[in-house]
What we know:
Number of strands: 7
Shape: globular
Helix content: under 10%
Number of domains: 1
Number of helices: 1
Amino acid sequence: MGRMFFIIWDPRDGEPQRDNGVITSDGIIGRVTEENVYIKAYASISEGEKRPEDLEVGAHTYAEFSLSGSKGLYRIYRVA
């Protein structure tokens, strides 16, 4: 299996841009792999949600991030 790529998306921004169903948006920090610290360490996956590595391309899961004293709920989309 090849590398997986993800974006972290703020749902307050609506939906990520797509072209023929393929997500073309880069999210809040650009495209990252499953080894990126924001996916591997900082994401607290919401209860009952899939882990990012279990997502199909185009699907998303919800995760809470706590950084620099602020906390927020974001979507992690698998883009490739």
